[in-house]
């Protein structure tokens, strides 16, 4: 296909979960929609992030829980079957084939153009196809950028010549490395250290700061560090990595440490941040800078573009780099594009139908380590920086009956940050085995701004870990 031209109501660039959600909403609203994708339909989450990483981690956490239960611990005392774990991971990624995702697009009536899409002026997108042709697309109403992010490697001499792992290689590797160095202390770093250590790697974590998961409450990083060290991970803090060398394409990796010393490994994972996939997107043709994050308003419309036809949803706008938040933004943006196309009122007030308010007030996140960590809303430090008048309430999860039944020697902690002026929750954090399933109750409380007097009437079932809600409220009353 060469220089073909088509016109749609809406063009979506990027067929990951965010783009799929946005396209689904606009198509369902009666707007003809096309989606452009240069890789696999389903995006990063389906093939190199959420799905494969959680498939790797689930057996790890299940075994850890089982080992803490008398009568079961002896039965699971041996090593994991790495081949079986990797095989199950491959099933969840559909063996890196996107037939099922393409079929879903067809079922909802969204057209697909494969190739690299670039903006080419107002409401124009030029797609370079794998065959070398060009498809020129024109949007009647809107173009939505949903291209996400890619791993950001540090500026280091020769780093692009050593075949370092990023999150993609860490989640899709076909074999267990004998020795793995993980550089970083965030979510990707701790999850992949957890997974590959349990699968048999000798793992060394090199962390520049003084703790893990520094965007969560401090006690989260402390408990996760304890768990990693007990699993046999060598966690080192205050470490800078100025140089990395490798013998050949896949030989031994030598990691030089600032101040002297080195670590030797078979593979090295850099989990050091993300960068927007906007470098070759044609932003300069609409007055924006290539390679930048796309700044948007509450409706996910890009600011600084005349006539307001350009939108950006998901990681690429830097509001909340999480798949579920990106999908939420996709739903918001799809609805608002449809409303504006039809001349209907737009409700962009806080918590309105067309405002991504949760990005600022109620972002949930689960870290699938052992122990798990889960949080929503503001940390105590964030609330203080914003000048909120708060009270911080902590509770030892081990004192909850459901937790003690869950596993012997249960360790965990819960915190809620209370807005004293409005008598609602600003944030909640849990760390401990199984706490990920507690999080949505906290998200409802924070997003719904449930008055604490009413929250007293939400009775937790006994004996479950969720009884911690009652204990937190009792501690608040004193």
Automatic annotation (TrEMBL):
Q: Does the keyword Magnesium apply?
A: no
Which residues are noted in the entry as NAD(+)-binding?
184-191, 273
Query: Which superkingdom?
Result: Bacteria
Q: Which GO terms describe its biological process?
A: 2-oxoglutarate metabolic process
Q: Which residues bind FAD?
A: 54, 117, 315
Q: Which residues form the Pyridine nucleotide-disulphide oxidoreductase dimerisation domain?
A: 363-469
Instruction: Give yes or no: UniProt keyword Nucleus.
Output: no
Names of the cofactor(s): FAD
Keyword annotations for this protein, in alphabetical order, are: FAD, Flavoprotein, NAD, Nucleotide-binding
Disulphide bond pairs: 45-50
Cofactor binding comment, as recorded: Binds 1 FAD per subunit.
A single GO molecular-function term is:
dihydrolipoyl dehydrogenase (NADH) activity
Q: Which Pfam families match?
A: Pyr_redox_2, Pyr_redox_dim
Residue ranges constituting the FAD/NAD(P)-binding domain according to the UniProt record: 8-326
| Family (UniProt) | Belongs to the class-I pyridine nucleotide-disulfide oxidoreductase family.
Designated name of the protein: Dihydrolipoamide dehydrogenase
- Which organism's genome codes for this protein? Actinacidiphila alni
């Amino acid at each position: 296909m060469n220089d073909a031209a088509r016109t749609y109501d809406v063009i979506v660039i990027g067929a990951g979960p965010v783009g799929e959600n946005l396209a689904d909403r606009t198509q369902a609203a009666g707007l003809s929609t096309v989606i452009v994708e240069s890789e696999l339909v389903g995006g990063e989450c389906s093939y190199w992030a959420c799905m494969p990483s959680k498939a790797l981690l689930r057996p790890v956490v299940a075994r850890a829980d089982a080992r803490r239960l008398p009568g079961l611990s002896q039965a699971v005392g041996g090593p994991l079957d790495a081949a079986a774990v990797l095989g199950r991971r491959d099933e969840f990624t559909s063996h890196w084939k996107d037939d099922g995702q393409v079929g879903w697009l067809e079922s909802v009536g969204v057209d697909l153009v494969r190739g690299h899409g670039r903006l080419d002026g107002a409401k124009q997108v030029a797609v370079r196809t794998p065959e070398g042709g060009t498809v020129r697309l024109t949007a009647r109403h809107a173009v939505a950028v949903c291209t996400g992010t890619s791993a950001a490697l540090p500026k280091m001499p020769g780093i692009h010549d050593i075949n370092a792992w990023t999150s993609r290689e860490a989640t899709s590797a076909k074999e267990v490395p004998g020795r793995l160095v993980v550089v970083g202390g965030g979510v990707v770093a701790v999850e992949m250290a957890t997974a590959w250590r349990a699968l048999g790697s000798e793992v060394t974590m090199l962390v520049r700061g003084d703790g893990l998961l520094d965007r969560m409450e401090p006690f989260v990083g402390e408990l996760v560090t304890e768990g990693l060290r007990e699993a046999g991970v060598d966690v080192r803090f205050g470490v800078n990595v100025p140089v990395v060398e490798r013998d050949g394409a896949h030989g031994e990796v030598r990691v030089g440490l600032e101040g002297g010393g080195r670590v030797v490994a078979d593979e090295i994972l850099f989990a050091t941040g993300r960068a927007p996939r906007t470098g070759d997107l044609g932003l300069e043709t609409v007055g924006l800078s290539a390679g930048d994050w796309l700044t948007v308003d509450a409706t996910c419309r890009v600011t600084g573009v005349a006539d307001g036809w350009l939108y950006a949803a998901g990681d690429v706008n830097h509001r909340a780099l999480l798949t579920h938040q990106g999908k939420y933004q996709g739903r918001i943006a799809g609805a608002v594009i449809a409303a504006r196309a039809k001349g209907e009122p737009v409700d962009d007030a806080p918590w309105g139908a067309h405002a991504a308010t949760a990005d600022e007030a109620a972002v949930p996140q689960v870290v699938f380590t052992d122990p798990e960590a889960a949080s929503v809303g503001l940390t105590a430090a964030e609330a203080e920086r914003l000048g909120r008048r708060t009270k911080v309430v902590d509770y030892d999860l081990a004192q909850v009956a459901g937790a003690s039944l869950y596993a012997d020697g249960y360790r965990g902690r819960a915190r809620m940050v209370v807005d004293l002026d409005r008598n609602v929750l600003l944030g909640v954090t849990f760390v401990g085995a199984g706490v990920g399933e507690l999080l949505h109750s906290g998200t409802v409380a924070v997003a719904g701004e449930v008055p604490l007097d009413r929250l007293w009437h939400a009775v937790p079932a006994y004996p479950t870990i969720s009884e911690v809600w009652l204990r937190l409220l009792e501690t608040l009353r004193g």
